[in-house]
Design a protein that fits this description.
Elements (H helix, E strand, L loop, with lengths): L15 E5 L4 H13 L2 E6 L5 H7 L3 E4 L11 E4 L8 H9 L2 E4 H9 L3 E6 L4 H14 L5 E8 L4 E4 L5 E5 L14 E4 L7 H4 L2 H13 L5 E4 L3 H10 L2 E4 L6 E9 L2 E8 L2 E8 L4 H16 L4 H9 L9 E6 L2 E6 L4 H12 L7 E6 L4 H7 L12 E4 L16 H10 L5 E3 L3 H11 L4 E6 L7 H16 L1
């Protein structure tokens, strides 16, 4: 049994800390938790963002713009993979001898302050982490948490309570998950992503193998995913899913009006039933995984199920942004083929009675699409109309010949009769959707770039068209 690396800083004593790129979703969460721990925290970002108001409210001294002076008289600075080595604050820290660490090191130091439960996996992490955190809250445990998205029920994605438990989302994109000292973990699935960091799928699997080897406490893995099933057998894990041989199995799954009911068996014994106000069988699996961990660490099934019945969801996970002229507009973070397929299947099978599913997808990162574009060929089979946009760079450099049109070709090669629309320009995309959507449609815009604002843009344009017609 190997162990996780020792965190590079001890946070049991008050520290003077600086967060570079504090407006990023992961970094803002870390800054908030550090401030709530009682540390003297400052942060910087290149531009003003709405999240910075929340960071300031937590007591972080936020600066817009980077400056060398900001790292002076700090005990340590932390930064994410998005912050290059040439950043002047990182450079200054190195010059003056201030401890400089990747965000994984600071998150590891936070995890070392509590009994930490992590949720890892290619997708489903944020929702599952949120569910588990709310189960502990329902039980009166008041866990601290660091989550990659805002939990609707809490209005934030991070909080430090000082209680025994910490629930954390373990990100594999840059190897952060391998640095965390953990008591237990849930592993949702293992699929192809972040090949710019790992190189091969085999390396991704090997990373999760080492990750599980570092966890001494309960390891709860989804047996419905073939890779995690293989890892579960190797590491003698607790399993969950819909498969007959799962230790915690969801059965009698019934969808209706944007929700699910199902029952849970634990090694053949019925624990009880669950009412889940979310769409998609993938969320039934996520809920079952969170339930499995909750019961394993001693929570009552009834308490955990009660938390799920009140679950308000997570920002950008099937987020209904409005209904306009009888057309429902939804925003979702899905950006990998299996995620997209799950979201569209959720819409098709939700029981909401939608006539048409209109899928809009903005591919993300040139270095992801260069290797993965063929894998999107059947991601949209549950959509009646597929609208594809240009790639959102997310800080990656363009690659000759790599455009969103590759996904158009992949879908049409596999499904020649599919209605696929190529809309590389945002103004044309908004105009097309404003005219295309009709009563009974659900339009789901997906991706992790600036596509999040599309539902608002479409509703504004439809209002303008109505005004012009009167």
């Amino acid at each position: 049994m190997s162990t996780a690396p020792t965190p590079p800083i001890d946070l049991t004593e008050p520290r003077r800390l600086h967060v570079v790129g504090v407006g990023g979703p992961g970094m803002s969460a870390i800054a908030i938790v550090l401030a709530e721990m009682g540390h003297d925290v400052s942060g910087s970002d290149i531009r003003e963002r709405s999240v910075l108001d929340r960071v300031r409210a937590a007591g972080v001294d936020v600066h817009v713009g980077h400056s060398r002076e900001l790292v002076h008289e700090r005990d340590a600075i932390t930064w994410s993979t998005a912050i290059p080595a040439r950043n002047i604050e990182r450079d200054e820290a190195d010059k003056v001898g201030v401890l400089s660490m990747h965000r994984s090191g600071m998150l590891a130091a936070i995890c070392a302050r509590a009994k930490s439960l992590a949720v890892a996996g290619t997708h489903g992490k944020t929702s599952t982490t949120s569910m588990l955190m709310l189960m502990l809250s329902e039980a009166g445990v008041r866990p601290s948490f660091v989550i990659g998205g805002d939990v609707t029920d809490m209005g934030t994605g991070a909080q430090w309570t000082g209680a025994e438990w910490l629930v954390v989302e373990a990100d594999e994109s840059d190897g952060t998950h391998l640095q965390l000292p953990l008591y237990g973990t849930i592993l949702t699935n293992v699929e192809v992503d972040h090949l710019d960091h790992y190189g091969t799928f085999e390396a991704i699997v090997e990373g999760f193998d080492r990750y599980l080897d570092q966890v001494d406490g309960p390891k709860v893995l989804c047996i419905d995913d073939p890779t995690t099933a293989s890892l579960a057998a190797k590491h003698s894990c607790i399993t969950y899913g819909t498969s007959a041989d799962a230790d915690f199995r969801a059965i009698d799954i019934v969808a209706g009006e944007g929700s699910f009911t199902f029952s849970v068996l634990c090694r053949g014994e019925r624990l009880g039933s669950v009412s889940l106000p979310l769409r998609g069988v993938h969320n039934v699996r996520n809920a079952t995984g969170a339930l499995a961990m909750a019961v394993t660490i001693g929570l009552s099934f009834d308490v955990a199920a009660a938390a799920l019945a009140k679950f308000g969801g997570v920002a950008r996970r099937f987020d209904v942004r409005g209904v306009d002229g009888g057309a429902t507009l939804v925003d979702d973070y899905a950006h990998l083929p299996s995620e997209i397929g799950a979201v569209l299947a959720a819409a098709r099978q939700s029981g909401d009675g939608w006539n048409r599913v209109v899928a809009v997808f903005q591919p993300n990162r040139f270095n992801r699409i260069v290797t993965m574009w063929p894998d999107y060929h059947s991601a949209f089979v549950d959509a009646d109309v597929v609208v594809l946009t240009e790639i959102y760079a997310s800080g990656t450099a363009p690659i000759p010949g790599i455009t969103g049109k590759l996904l158009v070709n992949a879908v049409l090669d596999a499904h020649p009769r599919a209605r696929v629309v190529w809309m590389p320009k945002r103004i044309d995309l908004v105009e097309f959707l404003a005219g295309e959507l009709r009563e009974g449609d659900v339009c789901i815009s997906m991706g992790c770039g600036d596509i999040a604002s599309l539902p608002d843009e479409v509703q504004t344009r439809r209002s303008e068209r109505r005004l012009r017609a009167t």
